[in-house]
Amino acid sequence: xxxxxxxxxxxxxxxxxxxxxxxxxxxxxxxxxxxxxxxxxxxxxxxxxxxxxxxxxxxxxxxxxxxxxxxxxxxxxxxxxxxxxxxxxxxxxxxxxxxxxxxxxxxxxxxxxxxxxxxxxxxxxxxxxxxxxxxxxxxxxxxxxxxxxxxxxxxxxxxxxxxxxxxxxxxxxxxxxxxxxxxxxxxxxxxxxxxxxxxxxxxxxxxxxxxxxxxxxxxxxxxxxxxxxxxxxxxxxxxxxxxxxxxxxxxxxxxxxxxxxxxxxxxxxxxxxxxxxxxxxxxxxxxxxxxxxxxxxxxxxxxxxxxxxxxxxxxxxxxxxxxxxxxxxxxxxxxxxxxxxxxxxxxxxxxxxxxxxxxxxxxxxxxxxxxxxxxxxxxxxxxxxxxxxxxxxxxxxxxxxxxxxxxxxxxxxxxxxxxxxxxx
Length: 424
Description:
Elements: E1 11-15, E2 23-27, H1 29-35, H2 41-45, E3 55-65, E4 68-77, E5 82-86, H3 95-105, H4 116-128, H5 132-157, H6 161-164, E6 172-178, H7 190-202, E7 207-210, H8 223-244, E8 249-253, H9 260-270, E9 277-279, H10 285-294, E10 298-301, H11 307-317, E11 322-323, H12 333-345, E12 349-350, H13 358-368, E13 377-380, E14 391-392, E15 397-398, E16 401-403, E17 413-414, E18 420-422
Parallel strand pairs: 6-7, 6-13, 7-8, 8-9, 9-10, 10-11, 11-12
Antiparallel strand pairs: 1-2, 3-4, 3-18, 4-5, 6-16, 14-17, 15-16
C-alpha cells in the first residue's frame, strides 16, 4: 500500500515478513528513492553468472564461393540457442578469422548475449593493435561475433532484430544487383557484363552495379594504357545500360583507380549513361571530397571504414553523399546503426555495402529496416546458383526486394548441407 502523508511526500509501505505480522514502516520520499534501486543490485552484480542464456560455445563454418569463401561464426548458449554472424573477408580458408574469433570469444564466454558494449570495447582495443595486413580479417571476426549476439538477443526475447533497433520503418529492403563478382575471367567483356545484367533483370532487380575499371592499375602512369583502360571500362558501362534499358538504376564502383582530376574527367565521359551513383572513384578522403564537389552525380563510399570514429571524419569531410558501412567490417549491427545516425545528422543517406552471404545481408537488412535515411542495400548477384539455399528458410528476394522474416533474431538458421565446419 502506498499513500501520501503530507510534507516530504512520505511513502507508507506494508511489508509482509514470513512468519511475522504486517510491519508498517514510514520512509520519506528521499529515503525511498535512495534505497529502492538497491533491491535490483544483486541481479545486476550477478548478471554475468552462468544461466541458460550464457554464451558457452563458438564454431566456425565456411563454404567456397569462387576463389573466396563465405565464413560464419556461430555462438551457442548453455540453453542451446545459436546466433549467427558473417565473418567473410575474402579468405579461401578461414584460418586467420578462426584464430582471431576464438581469442575474442574469451571476452564474452560465460556471459549473456546482452553485453554487446563489453564486446565492442574489447573489439576496439583489439583492432587498434592490429597490423594493417590483418586488419580486414580482424574487423570481420569482431563484427561477426557482434552480429551473433544480436541474433541471440532476438531469440532470447522472441523478437526479430529490427525490433531491437527501434522498429521497422519498412519490411522489404531494396537491393541492387552487384554483377561484378559474377562476371569473371573470359566473361569480363562488354557482352559478359551485359549477359549478367540481363539475368539480374529477369530475376526482378531494377538496379545494377559493376566495377568497370578493375582491369586498370591505380593511377596508371602510361598515357596509352590509361586511355585504353578508360575506354574499355566505359564500353562495359554502355553495354549494361543498353541491357537494362533507360528506366533502371545503374551504379558503378571505381575501386579507387583514379585521383580527383582523372575521376572528374571520367565522370564527364559517363554522363550519357545517367548513373545513380559513382562509388569510391578515389582513394584519399581529400580526393573524394574534391571529386564530390565537382560532380552532379551522387557519390558513395566508406565500405572499409571501421567504427563510428572511422566514419565521423569521413562524413565531416564532405567526401560522399551516401555512406556505405559494411556490417562485416564496420563493427556489426549496432555500429551500423550508430554510423547511420551520424550520417542522418549530417544530412547524408546510408546505403550499406554488402557483397556478403545471406546471413550478412540479412543482418544488415534488419538495421536498414529501422533507418530513416536508408537508400539501397547491396547484394552480390549471380556468384553461385545455390546462394539462397545456404540458410533456412531460404533467402527470399522478390523484384529486387529482400523480405525480412518476422522470426526471432535475424530470422535464419544455417543449412548444414551447404556449410563445412572449420576445426583447424
